[in-house]
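DATA SHEET
Item: assembly model
Revision: 1
Owner: S.N.
Input lines:
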Amino acid sequence: MTETVLETYGLTKYYGGTLALDNMDLKIPRGCICGFVGRNAAGKTTAIKLMLGLLKPTAGSAKLLGCDSQNLTPAIRQRIGYVTEGHHLFHWMSIASLEKFQRAFFPKQWDDRFFSEMIEYFELPKNKKIKHLSHGQRAQVSLALALAPNPELLVMDDPTLGLDTAIRRQFLEGMIQLIMQQGRTVFFSSHILGDVERVSDRIVVIDKGVIRADCSLEQFREAVKKVKLSFSDCPPAQLDIEGLLHCRRSEKELELILIGTDDEKIKQWADSAAAIKYSIVKMNLEDQFIEFTAPPNHKKLFQWEKN
Amino acid sequence: MRFLALLKKELRECLPWLLIAAIAFLVLGGLALRLMIQSGAPFRYPYHFSPGSTVNRYLLRASPLLSTTGVWLFFISIVLGLALGIRQFFIPHFSRTWGFTIHRSINKLTILCAKLFVAAIAFIISLGTVWLLIYWYASLPEILPFLPEPRLFIEGWILIAMGFTVYLGTALAGLSKARWYTTKVFPLAFVLVIIATTVSQWKLSTAFAVMIIGSLILLSQIIHTFLNREF
């Protein structure tokens, strides 16, 4: 049986009267690279902070490496790497002094060579102070600090936020170095779908505090479909097709976003609805995500009603 | 090793304030004492006594020294308390480094202990040492017409302890997640009450007791808040 390293049961968080996370159930097995995606204010950071015991849940619980997140012992924390959102480090410290500070908390597992290699790879001078580094460079230091103790579980909160394409690529390559080591689990939030696609084998989609999808990346790619149908007359008013998420209508056309509907059923429905033509539009992950998390009555941006 | 790393980090963050306070008190407190000696103030009675009244030995010998240097000690001690409280408990909130600080292989209480320990040491090293130096100088023969009372030395330490109480109040205010104009400022109001109660005490033992009880109340609240706070 696969060991679960991260699990949540009905994890819920309210900030005053605002619901930030609603009844989140999640199980991440060992060795999984899980991309946790959602729009801004979807609840990603709240979920991660709850998992790490930095926030207290309103209801439910979370377990990391078998230990309740609200009572994570120093020994358990030692096995978990955490990259904070925005890479906020002590500004007055140099990279070398930050390394020394961080090493003290991982006396037996700190990998000096690995840290130095990463810093060298990122072309960062060790004597440079954090306050003199760019956001991207701070992200690189942050990743090196989290990876050098060789953590069993690496939790990252939007690590590539605000980084340019080249730095993001370097960052992901650094992450892949960890992934290549067997048995390491990575749970990272992002809203850059390209990053998720590049490294993840599992995707968890969160929207307005609710988990909307939790499956393998392939399953998600297979499941979300856009179908365009043309009609000789008005499209039907009633859309009784299985897995319909939302639709957009125009005079003689219909655009459907479907979840988990197989191609055969789409064909059958198109025939029964007397569509003169239909096509399944290929979407990239980003389009799929946008369609998947779009509110039911949303219109495309910059598409105004004609008077 | 872990605690030591935290201590070093906290000490480094507080070092500028520690040095500023020590230098400021050394310069201002020392200068005040020097000016007082030059003006001949210690050689005059600080109070007018009517014929036949009992001369209070303490007032006669203590007041000149504390009325000048002591004011600076009080003022600098309060400012140091505010500065250290802000540095250790407000700045991590604004610079968003709490997450990085808290997620480490060490108990939360140890992280807090490192902060409190460094603050206490900062008060002892910066103000305590300079106060000791000034008192020692004032005690040298022929500096003052009479040796300063030992009570004076202890009163100086009470003023330093007041600064530490201000630090505790600021720390609690920094940890509070309430709005600044509501319960967030309550700890500082409580500190004002402690200070007012302490300075109105004549007996040193009572003054100390007020300080200790007030500080313990603040300390217990800080520990409770820190362990249960969301970061």
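QC remark: Chain B touches chain A at residues 1-2, 4-5, 8-9, 12-13, 95-100, 102-107, 228, 230-231 (CB under 8 Å).
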